[in-house]
Structures are given as structure tokens and as C-alpha cells.
Amino acid sequence: MKTVTIVGLGLIGGSFALALKKVGNFEKIIGVDGSLQHCKEALELGIVDTLGELKESVLQSDLVVLAIPINAIQRILPQILDYIPAKTIVMDMGSTKEGICKLVKNHPNRKNFVATHPIAGTENSGPKAAYPELYLNKVAIICDAEDSSIQAVKKIQKIYQSLWMNVISMTSNAHDQHIAYVSHLSHITSFALGQTVLEEEANEKAIFDMAGSGFESTVRLAKSSPAMWTPIFLQNRENLLIAIDAYQAQLGKLRRMIDQKDEQGIEKYLTETNTIRRILKK
User: Fold this and answer.
1) For the chain, N or C: smaller number of CB within 10 Å?
2) For residues 267 and 46, what is the distance between their CA atoms, to the nearest angstrom?
């Protein structure tokens, strides 16, 4: 595999390109992006070697990486699979998997596609936010691997592992259920907290002056790209609604204890929740 085309030159795609360059996996990295500004920055920053149009770039590539919003992946993936050369592998890096996998389930070239989700990111976006260590020691998930060719899956595994990532496999359905709780719900609560403060606290200077590290770390995700997260919330709607309901139930439980001045209940609740530290350390 000598040539890779990366579609989407923001944080995810740009960081992937830089990481590939660092380990020397490919001889040539082609960038494709609908934003002229992103293209200009990616070229100036050395993220890609050259820029190209989608179809012409795909036709000369051994690997095509889709690092764009979910709705855009669903729009162009079937088209790409229609005309890719027999040797070309296509992978996506989207945060929801079931909708994408169902979309191309019966496509004649489904075996050339590997559905993946590298669990990595920051609240920043664009080529200037990209850095090669984004994926270091993170987890990459491959979904519905049985629908891809064995050779394609092995090559994608090898690429992720070369970036010092731990690769695991699961069904797209299981992925979307789990990710609703450990990723998507975190973003929902961060956006909701940010909006609550903006609506209830009109004094912006007070927000800036009084916001401690706890607030800053909790609301950090609310700075994430709306263009990326809006389709994610809608694509994983059913799982996310269940997660939101469960979260609201926990807020209701805590609210009742605070209202009732239940000191022992609150302390017991917080102590039990501290268990998450032990789990996350693993």
C-alpha cells in the first residue's frame, strides 16, 4: 500500500495523516476536502503531500480514509464503492456505525470497506488542530468485520497498530449502544451545561472570572464542532434517547436527596460513583 487519500482534513483526518507520515506507512498522502481553507492549511502545514478531487484521487489510491461527518460519509461512501479499483480499501472513522454498515450491507464491493471508529479527539477542529500523537495509546474499533474481506481487515488492523493503538472488534449495533453512554452522552451533557449557564447567567464576565477547572473540564466538549455532532446525535438517536433518560433519572435521584437534605444518601451516592475512577484507570 503506497498511496492513501484522506477525505476530510480536520482534526481526525489531519491527525491520521500526520501519524501515518511519522511512522512512514505510505509514500504519498492525497488530501480531499470541501473547504478551500482547510485544503490550503493542510498543504501549508505538511499534513498532505498533494490535493486532489475525490474520484481521481480514489482511483489512484490503495487506501481511502473517510474522516468527515456521518451524514457526508453516508452520502459519498456508496458512490466511492461504485468505482473503486479492486485492490482499494475504504475505511471510515465515523462515530456511529450501524447506519453506515446497513447502508452498504448489500453493495457488491462491501468487502472492500472496513467500518472503524478510532476513539480519539479533542474539542478543537480544523487542520491547525491536528497533531500526530492524537491516536497514541487509544482504542480503534472495527465493526462488522465479517462483512469485509479478511485481507482488508488485517491491513487496517496493522495500520492502527503501527500507530500504537489497541484494536478491538464488535458489531455495529453493540458499538452504537456502548458509544451512546461513554461518548455521545458526555457531549450532550456538556452542551446542555454550557447552554444552561449561558441562559441563566447573563453576566459573561462573571462566568469567565468564577469558572473553575471543574466547570472548564466539564463544559470543554461544548466547544466541539456542531457540524460533526449534529448528525451523530441524529444517527444514534434511539440509543442516545435511552442514555439521556437514564441520565435524567440519576439527576432526579440526586435532586431528591439534595431537596430532602439527605446527607448520608448523598455521601453514599458519591462514594459509589467514585468507583468509576478504578474502572477508568484500567
Assistant:
1) C
2) 52
